[in-house]
Amino acid sequence: MLAAGSAWRILEAEHDQLRQIVGDIARMLDDEAWKQPGPQLDSLLGLIRKFQDFETRTHRPKGVVLLGATRGRLPEADQLLDLLEHDGQRCDELLNGALDLLRAVEAGGRAEAGGVVTLLRQHRELMTRQLHQEDTVLRFYTAQLLTSEEWSRVVSSISREVGNAKDRPGGK
């Protein structure tokens, strides 16, 4: 199916972007300069915000129709969707926790650097697993469960989101 292939090429490209940002965040943790106010801390905060913005404003909206069309068709697929939703919420919590600690550093306070590193490593592990599940298991279920017409709706929804992203500040 051409529509399914098109949809997954877009989603996988976005997954690659998310993996790249998460990797960039992990590499920044190796330089301890982020533990005090300054350019390294600003860069780390910027990367985390970039990840959050891309994930919530660009990537997630594209999956709404895909996940909605998949839900309720097969108990195993629903279990996966529940897990992905739970993991997505947990990822949000981990990033928000790290941001809270980093904001304290930005304000000149002392935050436990180990706590930041732990939260961001947990986020990376969970996000990496989630993206892999989407690329493999979710792709398998959607290939089995969705009709050509449903794929057409998914691709139309993704196309609208791509158009909307171009209209946002900083959109391409």
The best one-word shape is elongated
Mean of pLDDT? 92
| SSE order, one letter for each helix or strand | HHHHH
- Counted beta strands: 0
Largest sheet: none
Could you tell me how far the N terminus lies from the C terminus, measured between alpha carbons in angstroms? 27 Å
Strand content: under 5%
Tally of helical segments: 5
Low-confidence stretches: none
> Percentage of helical residues?
over 70%
Structural class, by secondary structure, is: mainly alpha
User: How much is the radius of gyration in Å?
Assistant: 18 Å
Overview of the molecule:
The structure is a single chain. The protein is mainly α and 172 residues long. The chain has five helices and no strands. The chain is elongated. The chain starts with a helix and ends in a 5-residue tail after the last helix.
